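Format is sequence with structure; example below:
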Amino acid sequence: MPRTLRRAGLAFSLLVLLLIALAGGGVALYGRASLPVLEGAVTLPRAATPAARVVVARDAHGIPHIVARTDGDAYFALGFVHAQDRLWQLDMNRRIASGTLSEVLGARTLPLDQFMRTLGVKRNAERIYRHLSPDTRFALERYAAGINAYLATRGPALPIEYLMTGAPAPIPWTPEDSVAWLSVLAWDLGGNMALAIERMRLAQRLPLAQIRQLVTTAPEDATPMATIDYVPMLRGLSALAVTAAAALDAQPSQHVEGLGSNNWVVAGNRSESGLPMLANDPHLGLSTPPLFYLAHLRSDRLNVAGGTVPGLPVVLIGHNEQIAWGMTNTGTSVEDLFIEQVDLTRPDYYRTPGGWARFATRTETIAVKGQPAVRWTVRETRHGPVISDVSANARDALRRSSRYVLALQWTALMPDDTTMEAGLGFDHARDWPEFLRAAAKFDAPQQNIVYADRHGNIGFVAPGRVPIRRPGNDLMTEVPAPGWDARYDWSGFVPFDALPQALNPPAGRIVTANNRIVPRGYPYFLSGEWVLPYRYKRITALLDARATHSLDSFAAIQADIQSPSQADLLPLLIARAGLPADRDEADALARLRRWDRVARADEAEPLIASAWERAAAQAVFEPRAGRELFAEYWRQRNLHQALLNALRDPTIGAAWCGKAAGTAAPAPCSAQVGAALRAALRDLKQRYGDDMRAWRWGDAHAALARHRPFHQVPWLARWFDVRVPFGGDMTTVDVGGNDFSDAAAPYETKMAAAMRMVIDMAAPDAARFAMPVGQSGNRFSAWYSDRMDEWANGRYVTIPTDAASVERCACKRLALVPAGG
């Protein structure tokens, strides 16, 4: 009997292995079938075809060189290759913008769909499209035709995500889909709404002084915002504050401290070549596939290379034959929240400065996989959509207990937005005047754009629609304002000529890193929430450390991982640590005293310092803020500046930690800091083992590119996500943004350089580019993740734009042949 059982067990095991092998073989066959055709020729249908044959020559990294006769054909081919390599991403991006994710992914994406439908992004995109110039509409139409040509000629197998989710095949792309996706990108970079909501929540528990101590910026960058104590006004609006927090949770992304980018440019007298040089690395959330897609487009009027974004027919960051440009986020306050008072006797009406007005309403219906469709009414005021209606629970709570709702006014919801025209204009500009004319059409969100050209000029402009706030506005976006009071209404937009700009400054360099960009006395309010200036100061110091620069020195600056924030904070922590309680504490303190503040991936010290900072922030601020409110705000910021201020200023420290007793009182918050070190070491041992010598910052701080949606399924995440050890921290030039509030992975890099570019205008074809993950979004492609290690280790590729170089570098060549041609 036992022998029979053993034989049966062996037979069953062999059967299971056979089934697994067959399944694996089937998946592999399907995967290969889903890969696009990259060589030979594709004859296109008459309904979607270029005017003439277009050649797409891909290099060894999958970067396409598009050679077309006309601009229209170049845009067509860009749409085609975007669909070839990023079809699932395109489809998901369209669903995000249109609020239709739940059709495929079910109820878990319903809050996001409801938020995007409430904003009305797709509806507004249709209005924007009608206002665009004929040339811009033509570019969008040709780009959409290229995507649809691929859909008409693709093989029978879609990317494997469609098979695994049961998603339907993508429907034809429209020009309005591109406009809508640009609005989503603007929302992702806009971002002052989140902090206004968090202040509203904090006001339910804390006084004004402590709110400002918690939600703070660098002292030298502080800009006056509210001039009144708004806490009494907000204390009676607890239900509205709860619904505001629900709206915040539904956002497509949340602000994380340090989010932004670096760019700089130097004049010819500061470069080894004698012509200007430019660098740019935008910092965004890591994903697979990544946001950017490298490409080169060549036609009768175009010869442009750099970072494109699937869904858009433009090179957003890059260069043509004459100029180069790069962008960072300005961080301007372009989102105002308004508390709207509802007439309880007529709930379809709300209060305005001129009396009561009826809400504009529309009915939205969202199909949800696996359950009945969800239908609700979206309300709009004269300011914009009512975002406190996003959550069904929030709507019910408001209607039961409050006569107020929260409405959003946002510059990107203007129906005459021309940002798409600006992007196309940058690609064609030949000099500074042409570039400025294009920049004047850039509406949302405001960006810091640096410029260089082959004529020897360097420049800077911060274009975008910036609302003008009235002189009587005593809240200045710090918290939501009463919507019935006209003094909080916008009175126009800052004129383009009054926006920050410079051409050939005497210093011979321009640097931006999301820092304050205007001097004291600038006549318009831009923001009171500038990113801490660590990266700006470090880049400036490194530029000034050399008389002249090269591509190598620019690349070295982009790779810099000296941590200025730890240089500020760590001495304060060490001074308050007290006597070590055991050998591990003594070892940790000794290591930190010796550490040079360079956040290397292969060392333990950055991990110990970061864990101590995390534990100290929690120990200092959570008891007074309360666990729930602290957790909410911690998701927005890692509280570095707030902690620094509490340790430097005895008054602030006493407000959070209590007054120390005794005549020889220790420094403020010493007890909390000492306890935080012990808590941090306990946590690190639980996560990484008892041997401190084996701890590695790069492992804990690994850069993780997350797949949408399979990151949320652990066994699929192991196959689709892409991970690599990574150094740096929130404030290094080579940024590695983590989220302390994430209990499972508080040190993991979630935000980093989404692209890097360094260019010398003496030789634009030698420009260097880097991008995380890979060009292809198809898991079975050799280009799915081939760039991740190269990116993490500071290595670049070039994208030559002259015909001979393109001919030499091409390893795969595809002809797009017109119907009948």
Q: What stands out?
A: Residues 564-597+604-695 form one domain. The mean pLDDT is 93.
